[in-house]
Design goal:
about 150 residues; alpha+beta; 4 helices; six-stranded mixed sheet; Nuclear Transport Factor 2, Chain: A
Length: about 150
């Protein structure tokens, strides 16, 4: 692993540590001014809004890194994402599936894969994610469970 790859992995870890403490200003220093989320230009303020909406929906949101790899300017991390659905999302994050949905009070624990691209300045320039949104909705009791075939109450 190169020094650049290690720095990029450290930046991803630091980003999530700061995000977890809701230190968004400090976390945004790790991002490029013209950063993209899922390929869409959002800039730093767009990322702040996404993070705030996740925290509104899941106030105890937590990501645990399971595995992380780096190659060149890319970092990919497999994580466990967990939290309790206690708020109403106002943005189409979490696959847009919780937009306007009343809190269920249920806890979720699902897998995510996050892919970060870094620019020449060592800042995050793009973020993409693949999440288990179906599993999240089943755990929240909002979609049928594969075990029962019906929504959980």
């Amino acid at each position: 692993m190169t020094g650049q790859e290690q720095r990029n992995m450290d930046t991803v870890r630091r980003n999530w540590e700061l995000h977890e403490r809701m230190e968004y200003d400090a976390a945004l220093e790790l991002w490029a001014d013209d950063c993209r989320n899922h390929g869409r230009p959002v800039g730093k303020e767009g990322m702040r809004k996404v993070w705030a909406d996740i925290r509104t929906t899941f106030p105890d949101w937590h990501l645990t890194i399971v595995e992380m790899i780096a190659r060149g300017t890319e970092v990919v991390a497999i994580v466990r994402a967990s939290g309790t659905h206690l708020g109403v999302g106002t943005m189409p994050v979490n696959g847009g599936m919780l937009l306007g949905v009343p809190p269920t009070g249920r806890r979720v624990d699902v897998q995510h894969i996050h892919w970060f691209t870094f620019n020449a300045d060592g800042r995050i320039s793009n973020h993409r994610a693949s999440r288990d949104d179906l599993g999240m909705m089943q755990q929240l009791g909002l979609l049928p469970s594969p075990q029962t075939g019906s929504r959980q109450s």
